[in-house]
# Entry
Amino acid sequence: MKRIKLGILQVNHDKSVEVGDAFPDDAHRFRDLFDALDQRFQYRVYMTIGGELPQDIDEQDAYLITGSPLSVLDKHIFSDKLTAFIKQCDANKKKLVGACFGHQAIALALGGKVMRSSTGYNIGIEKTQFIEHRSWMVPAQESLSMHVFHEDQVCEVPPGCVLLGSSENCKVASFSKGNHILTTQAHPEFTNPFMSCVLSSMENHLDANVREKVQASLQNPQNGSVFASWCSNFYLES
# Structure
């Protein structure tokens, strides 16, 4: 089986004792998720949070942009370079997956729109209902329940892209373009212990009722591993 060279663009670096020192970082959470699959990857992590991006898109076979507590609506030291990289991947039809921040960054780079939610944070395990289905969506499921943690959201799909799925609180929860771009607003790499830790660290910023609702949602099964399989199939499909 082909060993995919996967470049992970990490746009978060949690230095907190409560979370950052207690759990693997974003890139390693995705590595743990993918390493449970039969398909094997050869990884290269780019610390995009510090301005590091691939010098040449052909350094790797495919790429993934992680989530981040940062807002894509703000200007960061890496914003322009990341936008240019996304456009280059699109122009060269290079396989690219974006999760949460990555999903939003891809949307903005390709001409879509992102806005701050008027209802505040959307947190917990939420179901994405897929209205479009692709050959790489194996095992086939009509919906996937995954962790979400975001305040910004895509409100307009970029030109040339197709809306794949929506959730109760996020109309544009997933979209694709051709056979080379796939996004999700969710965090398939999150685990319940990690989410609980993040919630504890933010308890002064979230209403008690919100925290209780989120904790209750963690009792529901989640399908991050299924989305990982979809990503693997997506990367392999020509």
Summary: The mean pLDDT is 94.
